[in-house]
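pinging the channel bc i need a second pair of eyes. not urgent but kinda urgent?? the chain im working w is below, pasted from the shared doc
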Amino acid sequence: MTAPDLLAELDRRGVTVRVVGDSLHLRPSAALDEPLRTEARRLKPELLRLLAPGVSAPAECPRCGEPTAPYLLIRPDGAGAVVCARGHWTPARREAAS
């Protein structure tokens, strides 16, 4: 399985992926089985690269509380954003380098 395949499977299962520092938070954990957890651990470095390191985005939509998609979308202007199940867009923020 590739990292994009894993993200698609997580999305199919309704799992949101949030990057916090160098950690991945997958919720709800009840939607994950052990083989999927193993793949997430194995693909973690690539997932962190795909999910735009140094960028933070909410795991829940600030407007309606629905989960956001587990991947970052790049808008035509180059900025990142996430979308929730109801179609609300939320801009991602660049975090300060430490």
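so The mean pLDDT is 80. and The first helix runs from residue 3 to 12. — does that match what u expected or am i reading it wrong
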